[in-house]
Amino acid sequence: MDSVAVENYLKSIWELGPDDVATQDLAQHLNVAPASATKMLQRLTARGLVSHIPYKGASLTPEGQLKALSVVRRHRLLETFLAQTLNLGREQLHDEAERLEHALSADLEDAIATYLGNPTKDPHGHPIPGPDGQLPTDTDLLLSESPLNQRLIISQVPDRNPEMLAWLERNEIFPDTQLELISRDSFDGGLTANLNGKTVQIASSVANEVHVSLEDDS
Amino acid sequence: MDSVAVENYLKSIWELGPDDVATQDLAQHLNVAPASATKMLQRLTARGLVSHIPYKGASLTPEGQLKALSVVRRHRLLETFLAQTLNLGREQLHDEAERLEHALSADLEDAIATYLGNPTKDPHGHPIPGPDGQLPTDTDLLLSESPLNQRLIISQVPDRNPEMLAWLERNEIFPDTQLELISRDSFDGGLTANLNGKTVQIASSVANEVHVSLEDDS
DNA sequence: TAAAAAGTTTAGCCTTGGCTAAAATAAATA
DNA sequence: TATTTATTTTAGCCAAGGCTAAACTTTTTA
Ligand SMILES: [Mn+2]
Ligand SMILES: [Mn+2]
Ligand SMILES: [Mn+2]
Ligand SMILES: [Mn+2]
Question: Domain A141-213 - what CATH class?
Fold first, then answer.
Protein backbone atom coordinates (compact mmCIF):
# COMPACT_ATOMS: atom_id res chain seq x y z
CA MET A 1 0.00 0.00 0.00
CA ASP A 2 1.20 3.47 -0.86
CA SER A 3 1.29 6.08 1.86
CA VAL A 4 -0.78 9.23 1.79
CA ALA A 5 2.36 11.21 0.99
CA VAL A 6 3.30 8.99 -1.93
CA GLU A 7 -0.21 9.17 -3.37
CA ASN A 8 -0.25 12.94 -3.08
CA TYR A 9 3.13 13.30 -4.79
CA LEU A 10 2.07 11.05 -7.66
CA LYS A 11 -1.16 12.94 -8.14
CA SER A 12 0.61 16.30 -8.07
CA ILE A 13 3.19 15.20 -10.61
CA TRP A 14 0.35 14.07 -12.83
CA GLU A 15 -1.44 17.38 -12.41
CA LEU A 16 1.70 19.36 -13.21
CA GLY A 17 2.94 17.02 -15.93
CA PRO A 18 3.17 15.30 -18.24
CA ASP A 19 6.92 15.87 -18.12
CA ASP A 20 9.76 17.94 -16.77
CA VAL A 21 7.89 18.75 -13.60
CA ALA A 22 10.02 21.25 -11.70
CA THR A 23 10.99 20.53 -8.13
CA GLN A 24 9.90 23.97 -7.04
CA ASP A 25 6.47 23.71 -8.64
CA LEU A 26 5.93 20.32 -7.11
CA ALA A 27 7.04 21.54 -3.69
CA GLN A 28 4.75 24.53 -3.91
CA HIS A 29 1.81 22.43 -5.03
CA LEU A 30 2.25 20.21 -2.00
CA ASN A 31 3.24 22.86 0.48
CA VAL A 32 6.60 21.35 1.32
CA ALA A 33 10.17 22.59 1.04
CA PRO A 34 11.95 21.97 -2.28
CA ALA A 35 14.47 19.75 -0.51
CA SER A 36 11.64 17.52 0.68
CA ALA A 37 10.34 17.18 -2.86
CA THR A 38 13.79 16.25 -4.17
CA LYS A 39 14.13 13.54 -1.58
CA MET A 40 10.72 12.10 -2.35
CA LEU A 41 11.42 12.17 -6.09
CA GLN A 42 14.48 10.06 -5.41
CA ARG A 43 12.48 7.59 -3.37
CA LEU A 44 9.80 7.39 -6.05
CA THR A 45 12.43 6.92 -8.73
CA ALA A 46 13.95 4.08 -6.72
CA ARG A 47 10.50 2.51 -6.56
CA GLY A 48 10.03 2.77 -10.29
CA LEU A 49 7.11 5.17 -10.12
CA VAL A 50 8.90 8.28 -11.28
CA SER A 51 11.74 9.08 -13.57
CA HIS A 52 13.72 12.00 -12.24
CA ILE A 53 16.58 13.60 -14.07
CA PRO A 54 18.51 15.80 -11.61
CA TYR A 55 18.30 19.51 -12.37
CA LYS A 56 16.00 18.74 -15.27
CA GLY A 57 12.65 17.54 -14.01
CA ALA A 58 10.44 14.61 -13.12
CA SER A 59 7.80 12.56 -14.87
CA LEU A 60 5.70 9.53 -14.08
CA THR A 61 6.57 6.05 -15.31
CA PRO A 62 3.64 4.06 -16.73
CA GLU A 63 3.25 2.40 -13.33
CA GLY A 64 3.37 5.74 -11.54
CA GLN A 65 0.84 7.19 -13.93
CA LEU A 66 -1.54 4.33 -13.31
CA LYS A 67 -1.35 4.95 -9.60
CA ALA A 68 -1.78 8.67 -10.04
CA LEU A 69 -4.87 8.15 -12.14
CA SER A 70 -6.26 5.80 -9.55
CA VAL A 71 -5.99 8.58 -6.96
CA VAL A 72 -7.57 11.05 -9.36
CA ARG A 73 -10.41 8.61 -10.00
CA ARG A 74 -11.07 8.18 -6.28
CA HIS A 75 -10.89 11.93 -5.76
CA ARG A 76 -13.38 12.75 -8.46
CA LEU A 77 -15.74 9.92 -7.60
CA LEU A 78 -15.76 11.16 -4.01
CA GLU A 79 -16.47 14.72 -5.07
CA THR A 80 -19.35 13.49 -7.17
CA PHE A 81 -20.66 11.25 -4.42
CA LEU A 82 -20.52 13.97 -1.76
CA ALA A 83 -22.15 16.50 -4.05
CA GLN A 84 -24.94 14.12 -4.91
CA THR A 85 -25.73 12.74 -1.49
CA LEU A 86 -24.96 15.62 0.84
CA ASN A 87 -25.47 18.63 -1.40
CA LEU A 88 -22.14 20.08 -0.44
CA GLY A 89 -21.18 23.27 -2.25
CA ARG A 90 -18.84 22.86 -5.18
CA GLU A 91 -16.18 24.80 -3.27
CA GLN A 92 -16.17 22.47 -0.24
CA LEU A 93 -15.79 19.28 -2.20
CA HIS A 94 -12.14 19.39 -3.06
CA ASP A 95 -10.66 19.58 0.43
CA GLU A 96 -12.78 16.74 1.71
CA ALA A 97 -11.94 14.53 -1.24
CA GLU A 98 -8.28 15.41 -0.85
CA ARG A 99 -8.21 13.49 2.41
CA LEU A 100 -10.84 10.82 1.82
CA GLU A 101 -9.25 9.72 -1.47
CA HIS A 102 -6.52 7.91 0.48
CA ALA A 103 -8.93 5.88 2.60
CA LEU A 104 -11.05 4.32 -0.10
CA SER A 105 -10.85 0.58 -0.72
CA ALA A 106 -11.31 -0.87 -4.19
CA ASP A 107 -14.63 -2.29 -3.03
CA LEU A 108 -15.92 1.04 -1.83
CA GLU A 109 -14.66 2.74 -4.98
CA ASP A 110 -16.67 0.25 -7.01
CA ALA A 111 -19.73 0.65 -4.85
CA ILE A 112 -19.65 4.43 -5.23
CA ALA A 113 -19.08 4.26 -8.98
CA THR A 114 -21.98 1.87 -9.36
CA TYR A 115 -24.21 3.94 -7.13
CA LEU A 116 -23.49 6.99 -9.27
CA GLY A 117 -23.98 5.10 -12.53
CA ASN A 118 -20.29 5.22 -13.51
CA PRO A 119 -20.12 8.95 -14.09
CA THR A 120 -17.53 10.37 -16.48
CA LYS A 121 -17.38 13.89 -15.03
CA ASP A 122 -17.13 15.28 -11.54
CA PRO A 123 -19.03 18.36 -10.31
CA HIS A 124 -16.28 20.65 -11.62
CA GLY A 125 -16.56 19.11 -15.05
CA HIS A 126 -13.30 17.21 -14.71
CA PRO A 127 -13.22 13.82 -16.42
CA ILE A 128 -13.18 10.82 -14.11
CA PRO A 129 -10.59 8.24 -15.16
CA GLY A 130 -11.93 4.74 -15.67
CA PRO A 131 -10.94 1.83 -13.41
CA ASP A 132 -7.90 1.20 -15.61
CA GLY A 133 -6.94 4.83 -15.96
CA GLN A 134 -8.71 5.54 -19.24
CA LEU A 135 -9.33 9.22 -19.94
CA PRO A 136 -11.21 10.67 -22.90
CA THR A 137 -9.17 13.02 -25.04
CA ASP A 138 -10.03 16.50 -23.96
CA THR A 139 -11.19 18.77 -26.77
CA ASP A 140 -12.38 21.86 -24.96
CA LEU A 141 -10.51 25.14 -24.84
CA LEU A 142 -9.65 27.78 -22.30
CA LEU A 143 -12.16 30.58 -21.84
CA SER A 144 -9.26 32.99 -22.12
CA GLU A 145 -8.58 31.76 -25.64
CA SER A 146 -12.13 31.37 -26.85
CA PRO A 147 -13.66 33.29 -29.77
CA LEU A 148 -15.95 36.28 -29.25
CA ASN A 149 -19.62 36.46 -30.23
CA GLN A 150 -20.27 32.79 -30.15
CA ARG A 151 -22.28 30.52 -27.89
CA LEU A 152 -19.93 28.84 -25.39
CA ILE A 153 -20.72 26.19 -22.82
CA ILE A 154 -18.74 26.00 -19.62
CA SER A 155 -17.13 22.57 -19.40
CA GLN A 156 -14.70 22.82 -16.49
CA VAL A 157 -14.13 25.07 -13.50
CA PRO A 158 -11.12 24.82 -11.15
CA ASP A 159 -11.46 22.84 -7.94
CA ARG A 160 -8.49 23.85 -5.81
CA ASN A 161 -9.36 27.50 -5.30
CA PRO A 162 -12.41 27.94 -3.05
CA GLU A 163 -12.44 31.73 -3.40
CA MET A 164 -12.46 31.65 -7.17
CA LEU A 165 -15.00 28.87 -7.09
CA ALA A 166 -17.24 30.85 -4.78
CA TRP A 167 -17.02 33.81 -7.14
CA LEU A 168 -17.87 31.63 -10.11
CA GLU A 169 -20.77 30.13 -8.20
CA ARG A 170 -22.13 33.58 -7.34
CA ASN A 171 -22.02 34.50 -11.00
CA GLU A 172 -23.63 31.23 -12.01
CA ILE A 173 -20.59 30.08 -13.89
CA PHE A 174 -20.34 26.31 -13.62
CA PRO A 175 -20.48 23.29 -15.94
CA ASP A 176 -23.24 23.53 -18.53
CA THR A 177 -23.71 27.27 -18.13
CA GLN A 178 -24.03 29.03 -21.49
CA LEU A 179 -22.36 32.33 -22.20
CA GLU A 180 -21.06 34.52 -24.99
CA LEU A 181 -17.96 36.67 -24.97
CA ILE A 182 -18.59 40.28 -25.92
CA SER A 183 -15.13 41.75 -25.71
CA ARG A 184 -11.60 41.04 -24.62
CA ASP A 185 -9.37 43.73 -23.13
CA SER A 186 -6.30 43.63 -25.31
CA PHE A 187 -4.11 44.87 -22.46
CA ASP A 188 -4.88 42.58 -19.53
CA GLY A 189 -6.97 39.91 -21.21
CA GLY A 190 -10.01 40.66 -19.07
CA LEU A 191 -13.31 39.57 -20.61
CA THR A 192 -16.79 40.94 -20.82
CA ALA A 193 -19.39 38.26 -21.23
CA ASN A 194 -23.09 37.87 -21.61
CA LEU A 195 -24.56 35.20 -19.36
CA ASN A 196 -28.26 34.56 -18.87
CA GLY A 197 -28.93 38.09 -20.05
CA LYS A 198 -26.55 39.62 -17.53
CA THR A 199 -23.22 41.20 -18.34
CA VAL A 200 -20.25 39.92 -16.34
CA GLN A 201 -16.65 41.03 -16.11
CA ILE A 202 -14.26 38.09 -15.97
CA ALA A 203 -10.66 38.63 -14.94
CA SER A 204 -8.03 36.87 -17.02
CA SER A 205 -6.83 34.98 -13.94
CA VAL A 206 -10.26 33.43 -13.85
CA ALA A 207 -10.59 32.95 -17.58
CA ASN A 208 -7.34 30.99 -17.53
CA GLU A 209 -8.85 28.42 -15.20
CA VAL A 210 -12.19 27.90 -16.92
CA HIS A 211 -12.69 25.61 -19.88
CA VAL A 212 -15.47 25.83 -22.43
CA SER A 213 -16.71 23.86 -25.39
CA LEU A 214 -18.49 25.01 -28.50
CA GLU A 215 -20.61 21.89 -28.74
CA ASP A 216 -23.54 21.08 -26.53
CA ASP A 217 -22.41 19.15 -23.49
CA SER A 218 -19.67 16.72 -24.66
CA MET B 1 -4.39 17.60 14.36
CA ASP B 2 -3.97 14.14 15.76
CA SER B 3 -2.38 11.50 13.57
CA VAL B 4 -4.16 8.38 12.43
CA ALA B 5 -2.07 6.36 14.88
CA VAL B 6 -2.95 8.59 17.82
CA GLU B 7 -6.64 8.46 16.98
CA ASN B 8 -6.55 4.69 16.70
CA TYR B 9 -4.78 4.29 20.03
CA LEU B 10 -7.26 6.57 21.80
CA LYS B 11 -10.22 4.73 20.34
CA SER B 12 -8.76 1.34 21.26
CA ILE B 13 -8.10 2.41 24.82
CA TRP B 14 -11.68 3.59 25.03
CA GLU B 15 -12.95 0.31 23.65
CA LEU B 16 -10.86 -1.73 26.08
CA GLY B 17 -11.36 0.59 29.04
CA PRO B 18 -12.48 2.34 31.08
CA ASP B 19 -9.34 1.71 33.12
CA ASP B 20 -6.27 -0.42 33.63
CA VAL B 21 -6.00 -1.20 29.95
CA ALA B 22 -3.20 -3.73 29.61
CA THR B 23 -0.35 -3.02 27.23
CA GLN B 24 -0.67 -6.43 25.70
CA ASP B 25 -4.39 -6.15 25.04
CA LEU B 26 -3.91 -2.76 23.49
CA ALA B 27 -1.07 -3.99 21.32
CA GLN B 28 -3.10 -6.97 20.18
CA HIS B 29 -6.14 -4.82 19.44
CA LEU B 30 -4.01 -2.60 17.21
CA ASN B 31 -1.80 -5.29 15.73
CA VAL B 32 1.46 -3.81 16.96
CA ALA B 33 4.21 -5.11 19.23
CA PRO B 34 3.78 -4.49 22.97
CA ALA B 35 6.88 -2.31 22.98
CA SER B 36 5.28 -0.04 20.39
CA ALA B 37 2.20 0.34 22.56
CA THR B 38 4.28 1.21 25.60
CA LYS B 39 6.08 3.92 23.71
CA MET B 40 2.86 5.40 22.38
CA LEU B 41 1.30 5.31 25.85
CA GLN B 42 4.21 7.39 27.05
CA ARG B 43 3.78 9.89 24.25
CA LEU B 44 0.05 10.13 24.91
CA THR B 45 0.67 10.55 28.62
CA ALA B 46 3.11 13.38 27.88
CA ARG B 47 0.37 15.00 25.77
CA GLY B 48 -2.15 14.74 28.57
CA LEU B 49 -4.47 12.38 26.72
CA VAL B 50 -3.71 9.24 28.69
CA SER B 51 -2.71 8.40 32.20
CA HIS B 52 -0.35 5.47 32.21
CA ILE B 53 0.93 3.81 35.36
CA PRO B 54 3.88 1.59 34.41
CA TYR B 55 3.24 -2.11 34.87
CA LYS B 56 -0.30 -1.32 35.95
CA GLY B 57 -2.29 -0.05 33.01
CA ALA B 58 -3.56 2.91 31.06
CA SER B 59 -6.72 5.00 30.98
CA LEU B 60 -7.95 8.05 29.15
CA THR B 61 -7.89 11.52 30.66
CA PRO B 62 -11.09 13.56 30.16
CA GLU B 63 -9.44 15.22 27.18
CA GLY B 64 -8.36 11.87 25.77
CA GLN B 65 -11.83 10.47 26.26
CA LEU B 66 -13.39 13.35 24.40
CA LYS B 67 -11.10 12.72 21.46
CA ALA B 68 -11.75 9.00 21.55
CA LEU B 69 -15.49 9.58 21.51
CA SER B 70 -15.10 11.93 18.59
CA VAL B 71 -13.43 9.15 16.62
CA VAL B 72 -16.14 6.71 17.66
CA ARG B 73 -18.79 9.20 16.56
CA ARG B 74 -17.19 9.62 13.16
CA HIS B 75 -16.79 5.87 12.81
CA ARG B 76 -20.41 5.09 13.59
CA LEU B 77 -21.79 7.94 11.53
CA LEU B 78 -19.79 6.69 8.59
CA GLU B 79 -21.02 3.15 9.04
CA THR B 80 -24.57 4.43 9.10
CA PHE B 81 -24.03 6.67 6.10
CA LEU B 82 -22.43 3.95 4.00
CA ALA B 83 -25.11 1.44 4.93
CA GLN B 84 -27.86 3.89 4.03
CA THR B 85 -26.51 5.25 0.78
CA LEU B 86 -24.58 2.34 -0.69
CA ASN B 87 -26.32 -0.64 0.85
CA LEU B 88 -23.08 -2.16 1.97
CA GLY B 89 -23.40 -5.36 3.98
CA ARG B 90 -23.15 -4.97 7.73
CA GLU B 91 -19.91 -6.95 7.70
CA GLN B 92 -18.14 -4.64 5.22
CA LEU B 93 -18.90 -1.44 7.05
CA HIS B 94 -16.40 -1.60 9.85
CA ASP B 95 -13.19 -1.83 7.85
CA GLU B 96 -14.15 1.03 5.57
CA ALA B 97 -15.11 3.26 8.49
CA GLU B 98 -11.91 2.32 10.26
CA ARG B 99 -9.94 4.23 7.64
CA LEU B 100 -12.39 6.94 6.63
CA GLU B 101 -12.96 8.02 10.24
CA HIS B 102 -9.59 9.79 10.22
CA ALA B 103 -10.30 11.84 7.12
CA LEU B 104 -13.60 13.43 8.12
CA SER B 105 -13.71 17.18 8.76
CA ALA B 106 -16.06 18.65 11.35
CA ASP B 107 -18.09 20.11 8.49
CA LEU B 108 -18.50 16.80 6.76
CA GLU B 109 -19.29 15.09 10.05
CA ASP B 110 -22.08 17.61 10.58
CA ALA B 111 -23.36 17.25 7.04
CA ILE B 112 -23.56 13.49 7.39
CA ALA B 113 -25.23 13.67 10.78
CA THR B 114 -27.80 16.11 9.44
CA TYR B 115 -28.38 14.06 6.32
CA LEU B 116 -29.05 11.00 8.48
CA GLY B 117 -31.29 12.90 10.87
CA ASN B 118 -28.85 12.76 13.78
CA PRO B 119 -29.10 9.02 14.35
CA THR B 120 -28.38 7.59 17.79
CA LYS B 121 -27.48 4.06 16.66
CA ASP B 122 -25.30 2.63 13.95
CA PRO B 123 -26.19 -0.42 11.83
CA HIS B 124 -24.74 -2.74 14.48
CA GLY B 125 -26.92 -1.15 17.14
CA HIS B 126 -24.01 0.67 18.74
CA PRO B 127 -24.87 4.05 20.20
CA ILE B 128 -23.46 7.05 18.33
CA PRO B 129 -21.89 9.58 20.71
CA GLY B 130 -23.22 13.12 20.39
CA PRO B 131 -21.08 15.99 19.10
CA ASP B 132 -19.84 16.58 22.65
CA GLY B 133 -19.30 12.94 23.47
CA GLN B 134 -22.63 12.26 25.14
CA LEU B 135 -23.61 8.62 25.34
CA PRO B 136 -26.90 7.23 26.67
CA THR B 137 -26.52 4.86 29.60
CA ASP B 138 -26.68 1.41 28.19
CA THR B 139 -29.29 -0.82 29.82
CA ASP B 140 -29.26 -3.89 27.65
CA LEU B 141 -27.75 -7.22 28.60
CA LEU B 142 -25.62 -9.90 27.00
CA LEU B 143 -27.45 -12.63 25.17
CA SER B 144 -25.28 -15.10 27.08
CA GLU B 145 -26.74 -13.84 30.35
CA SER B 146 -30.33 -13.39 29.29
CA PRO B 147 -33.30 -15.25 30.79
CA LEU B 148 -34.96 -18.19 29.05
CA ASN B 149 -38.49 -18.29 27.75
CA GLN B 150 -38.93 -14.60 27.31
CA ARG B 151 -39.23 -12.36 24.31
CA LEU B 152 -35.83 -10.74 23.63
CA ILE B 153 -34.93 -8.11 21.07
CA ILE B 154 -31.44 -7.96 19.59
CA SER B 155 -29.95 -4.57 20.35
CA GLN B 156 -26.29 -4.89 19.36
CA VAL B 157 -24.13 -7.17 17.25
CA PRO B 158 -20.32 -7.00 17.05
CA ASP B 159 -18.70 -5.03 14.24
CA ARG B 160 -15.07 -6.11 14.20
CA ASN B 161 -15.57 -9.74 13.27
CA PRO B 162 -16.77 -10.16 9.67
CA GLU B 163 -17.04 -13.94 9.95
CA MET B 164 -19.23 -13.82 13.01
CA LEU B 165 -21.23 -11.01 11.49
CA ALA B 166 -21.77 -12.97 8.31
CA TRP B 167 -23.01 -15.93 10.37
CA LEU B 168 -25.37 -13.69 12.31
CA GLU B 169 -26.62 -12.17 9.09
CA ARG B 170 -27.27 -15.60 7.58
CA ASN B 171 -29.31 -16.48 10.62
CA GLU B 172 -31.16 -13.18 10.53
CA ILE B 173 -29.74 -12.07 13.83
CA PHE B 174 -29.31 -8.29 13.76
CA PRO B 175 -30.70 -5.27 15.58
CA ASP B 176 -34.47 -5.43 16.11
CA THR B 177 -34.70 -9.17 15.50
CA GLN B 178 -36.92 -10.88 18.06
CA LEU B 179 -36.02 -14.20 19.59
CA GLU B 180 -36.63 -16.38 22.62
CA LEU B 181 -34.13 -18.61 24.37
CA ILE B 182 -35.26 -22.16 24.80
CA SER B 183 -32.35 -23.72 26.62
CA ARG B 184 -28.81 -23.08 27.76
CA ASP B 185 -26.19 -25.80 27.84
CA SER B 186 -24.93 -25.75 31.40
CA PHE B 187 -21.53 -27.05 30.34
CA ASP B 188 -20.41 -24.77 27.48
CA GLY B 189 -23.03 -22.05 27.65
CA GLY B 190 -24.31 -22.76 24.15
CA LEU B 191 -27.86 -21.62 23.51
CA THR B 192 -30.87 -22.93 21.68
CA ALA B 193 -33.16 -20.17 20.51
CA ASN B 194 -36.40 -19.73 18.68
CA LEU B 195 -36.25 -17.08 15.99
CA ASN B 196 -38.97 -16.36 13.47
CA GLY B 197 -40.28 -19.86 14.03
CA LYS B 198 -36.90 -21.45 13.36
CA THR B 199 -34.68 -23.08 15.94
CA VAL B 200 -31.08 -21.88 16.02
CA GLN B 201 -28.02 -23.05 17.91
CA ILE B 202 -25.94 -20.16 19.17
CA ALA B 203 -22.40 -20.77 20.40
CA SER B 204 -21.44 -19.05 23.62
CA SER B 205 -18.64 -17.20 21.82
CA VAL B 206 -21.35 -15.58 19.74
CA ALA B 207 -23.76 -15.06 22.62
CA ASN B 208 -21.05 -13.17 24.44
CA GLU B 209 -20.88 -10.59 21.67
CA VAL B 210 -24.58 -10.01 21.15
CA HIS B 211 -26.66 -7.68 23.29
CA VAL B 212 -30.40 -7.84 23.77
CA SER B 213 -33.08 -5.81 25.49
CA LEU B 214 -36.36 -6.91 27.00
CA GLU B 215 -38.18 -3.75 25.97
CA ASP B 216 -39.32 -2.93 22.49
CA ASP B 217 -36.62 -1.03 20.66
CA SER B 218 -34.96 1.40 23.12
C1' DT C 1 8.41 -18.53 49.75
C1' DA C 2 11.52 -19.50 46.00
C1' DA C 3 11.55 -20.33 41.22
C1' DA C 4 9.37 -20.05 36.86
C1' DA C 5 6.34 -17.80 33.76
C1' DA C 6 3.97 -13.95 32.03
C1' DG C 7 3.69 -9.27 31.16
C1' DT C 8 5.92 -4.83 30.58
C1' DT C 9 9.38 -1.59 29.78
C1' DT C 10 13.91 -0.08 28.05
C1' DA C 11 17.51 0.15 24.72
C1' DG C 12 18.76 0.43 20.34
C1' DC C 13 17.72 0.25 15.60
C1' DC C 14 15.05 1.44 11.24
C1' DT C 15 12.09 3.99 7.65
C1' DT C 16 9.30 7.79 6.36
C1' DG C 17 8.75 12.38 5.51
C1' DG C 18 9.47 16.66 7.12
C1' DC C 19 12.93 20.86 7.96
C1' DT C 20 17.20 24.37 7.36
C1' DA C 21 21.66 25.66 5.70
C1' DA C 22 25.17 24.98 2.49
C1' DA C 23 26.86 23.41 -1.92
C1' DA C 24 26.22 22.64 -6.70
C1' DT C 25 24.26 23.52 -11.12
C1' DA C 26 21.72 26.05 -14.66
C1' DA C 27 19.81 30.29 -16.42
C1' DA C 28 19.79 35.13 -16.96
C1' DT C 29 22.11 39.41 -17.37
C1' DA C 30 25.57 42.72 -17.80
C1' DT D 1 31.73 35.70 -21.89
C1' DA D 2 31.90 36.55 -16.98
C1' DT D 3 29.11 37.25 -13.24
C1' DT D 4 25.01 37.36 -10.73
C1' DT D 5 20.70 35.11 -9.74
C1' DA D 6 17.52 31.34 -9.50
C1' DT D 7 16.87 26.59 -9.01
C1' DT D 8 18.05 22.27 -7.33
C1' DT D 9 20.45 19.00 -4.67
C1' DT D 10 23.13 17.41 -0.68
C1' DA D 11 24.15 17.14 4.10
C1' DG D 12 22.66 16.86 8.44
C1' DC D 13 19.06 17.13 11.72
C1' DC D 14 14.41 15.78 13.84
C1' DA D 15 9.90 13.42 15.36
C1' DA D 16 6.67 9.71 14.69
C1' DG D 17 5.84 5.14 14.86
C1' DG D 18 7.22 0.80 13.87
C1' DC D 19 10.42 -3.47 15.19
C1' DT D 20 13.52 -7.04 18.10
C1' DA D 21 16.24 -8.33 21.96
C1' DA D 22 17.28 -7.69 26.61
C1' DA D 23 16.12 -6.16 31.20
C1' DC D 24 12.93 -5.57 34.66
C1' DT D 25 8.38 -6.33 37.39
C1' DT D 26 4.56 -8.82 38.71
C1' DT D 27 2.04 -12.94 39.02
C1' DT D 28 1.66 -17.72 39.23
C1' DT D 29 3.06 -22.15 40.48
C1' DA D 30 5.67 -25.58 42.70
MN1 LIG E 1 -4.83 13.90 -1.08
MN1 LIG F 1 -13.02 18.14 -9.13
MN1 LIG G 1 -9.19 3.78 12.44
MN1 LIG H 1 -20.60 -0.32 14.33
Answer: mainly beta
